[in-house]
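anyone else get weird line breaks when pasting these?? whatever heres mine. first is seq + tokens for prot A
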Amino acid sequence: MKMRVKNHGWFFLWGLLTLVSFCFIGCKDDDGREKGSPFDPGKPVIISDFVPKEGGWGTRLLLYGNNFGDDPTKVKVTIGGKEAKVITVTNDNIYCFVPRGADAGNIEVTLLDGRGAELAYGEIGEKFVYKKKMLVSTLVGETDPEILDDNKNFDVIDGPWGACGGLEKMEWLVFDPNNKDHLYVCGGAKTHRVVDFAKQTLGSIKFTGEASGTTSILSFTNDGQLMVVRDIGQDGKNGIFFYSPESNFQTQVKAIHARGCRAAIPHPINGEIYTSRYDKGWIGRYDPITGDYKMDEIQMPYGSIQCFIAIHPTGNYMYIMVRNKHVIYRADYDFEEKTFTTPYLVCGKYDTKGITDGVGGNVRLNEPQQGCFVKNEEYEGQKDEYDFYFVDKQNHCVRTLTPTGCVKIYAGRPNGDGTKGFNDGDLRKEARFNYPASIVWDEKRECLLVGDSNNHRIRKIAMED
């Protein structure tokens, strides 16, 4: 379970250099015409150089040469056999974006006539070194772009990927521990879905009786029982329901009381299950072997809080995402007592929303919800080898929390623009989300999956194919 995090500073500097160069080549003469000469069919098209020498999808590339003309609509650039988007052309410069999948790296320029027929062609012997990078893409789900209403622009269909409509809500994502090809999607008050990676289908799952209402999360015990966690507003009512894997999660084997619960997360080593309670601000501890259940095992500093939980794979600590107060707490585990100790603030300021990267109380969040731990191979040998990735729902992005407590935006909000939307591509330059509510690490396929609720899609963050 690992993900490499790279420093892209070098590529940023090249991009800045290219942009500055673009400012010069895009200047105009006093009469308003672009500098440069039209294409001369009597002369060859020459590519003499290019910068930068390497990069990935979306890299700004500047070609130097001669006889490119001055009309970008009549210039075609291919890199590695893939057509690049041409932005600006002067007779001795072409400014373009590197296309996706330009692995071969050969650069070619073709001059076209008004009908798109080839007039002249040029290439350069040196190859662009294409670097693959992490990208946001769409795994499953689709909407009708002609319908602007987020609640009406999709159909709920069971079927193969590409013909299964959209997902209504995605409040929590969890893999079946006994079948890593089955991803369960909590639909809240809507339809719960099952993503089958082996068959590449999207299905549905329903629960009856007390378990059939609004659900906070779906979770699993360490031995593979499915837990349905209801948001119950009364004492003395069942709120967590356990279903057997032998029945394909249709036979309920037990239920326990829970009020205002948004968690049922097992300790990965000892197996006890940690719950939460909204009104009291409690973190509860349930032992599925003995049946002992202490609802107020841990007291949070406040009540009336929506607590979601993620436990470190080693079991050493857990993070508590307090969604409605925009903070994340941490509680360390006492292996002798087999329980967690008093929580303390890790990041954010209580009841203060915003979008600020940094450390501790300087960080600003806006409804952090689900998070997951991902091993970072750059931390190998350190005390904690995992980064924590979490969705910041109202900020429409995915953020990271390092073992040293540093929070930063990882994906979404391209170029600092926090507008919600839908777009695949570069993590920070192109990708957009629309109220992402859930996230999970797919260990088998080594990628992050994001429940992008109001886009009705599961998004994928992975190294470019």
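and prot B, same format (seq, then tokens)
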Amino acid sequence: MSASKREPILELAEAFTLIRDAEEARAFLTDLCTPSELNSLAERWEVAKLLAAGGHTYRQIHDLTGVSTTTIVRVARFLNEDRAGGYRTLFERVQKEDV
């Protein structure tokens, strides 16, 4: 199937699988996203980590990160409903790397 016929999000996801290390990932994300978009992604990841760790209220997470409670609720909803499973999959892999 030609690249023009493929789903753009899937094509982007496949491009991510070709990244070899954190520096390549940072370079790709910096080229792909505006600074604001990249900051939003990083904030969501930080919120997701805090929510997964437990022990923080939404207000505490807001105070720690400056992220809006609307965004915190959205991330929590995706974590709790495990919509695509992306957060959980990466949390498990990160934990294995830290061991």
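btw re prot B: Helices lie at 8-17, 22-32, 35-53, 58-65, 69-81, 86-98. Residues 18 and 78 are 26 Å apart (CA to CA).
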